[in-house]
Specification:
With 247 residues, the protein is α+β, with helices and mostly antiparallel strands. It has helices spanning 2-24, 72-98, 101-126, 217-220, and strands spanning 29-42, 47-52, 59-60, 65-69, 129-131, 136-141, 148-149, 154-171, 183-188, 194-203, 208-209, 223-230, 242-246. It contains four helices and 13 strands.
Length: 247
Amino acid sequence: MKKKIILNLLVIGSMTTLVGCTGSEKDIGYSGFVEGNSVQIQSELAGKISEIHIQEGSVIKSGDELISLNTEQLDLEIENAKVGIDIAKAKKEEADASGRDYLIDQADGAIKQAENNLKLLELQKSKSTLRGPIEGVVQDIHITEGEVVNPNETLVTIIDNNNKEVVVYVDEKDLSLIEKEKKIKVKSVAYDRRTFEGIVKRIATEAEFTPQNVQTKEERTKRVFAVTIDVSKVTELKPGMSVDIDL
């Protein structure tokens, strides 16, 4: 009987040891949101949308064409401006032939004014094509072809590919688990808990209270360290998505 009791105790002790090892091997988890730098593309001119060169989700480079405004009326004004320069130059020849200084001065001024008018119109035309200011991903297109837009109206929203991150607030006891440039597992329910890879970008040098947007009062009273994880290379993750981080 004593032998059976001893044997049972040995078995229970072994099971406890196994469970303890399994628990210690689990990743420490934190939650956060993907944050990104969004750029609003606006037109300086009023006009009708003639063509949209991108789609939502398109990857763009700096300088890529995004949207073109109709320039039919502007093209006519440019042609008229060129004719105006020719007329001004013809009058300049007449003024030179007359030998009268005041007529020559007036003709020179008329030419300068006509040339400046052309430059202004050409500048407006260059602004009729909106180009990407950064490398990024098109998040939203707020207009359709044929729509008339106004100055300073947001037409496209672009997410900066080079500046996408997750900030989590790590308890002091877990701080030893992380270091700069460490690769971190990032999971999102939007992709059925698929695991992505992030890299620790920054670790706060001072502790702080957990921010107010944390749900429970108990959590907000803890002293934590803000850890920033770079997820710029993960195209699937978009600003606003909730993610889980495994240290």
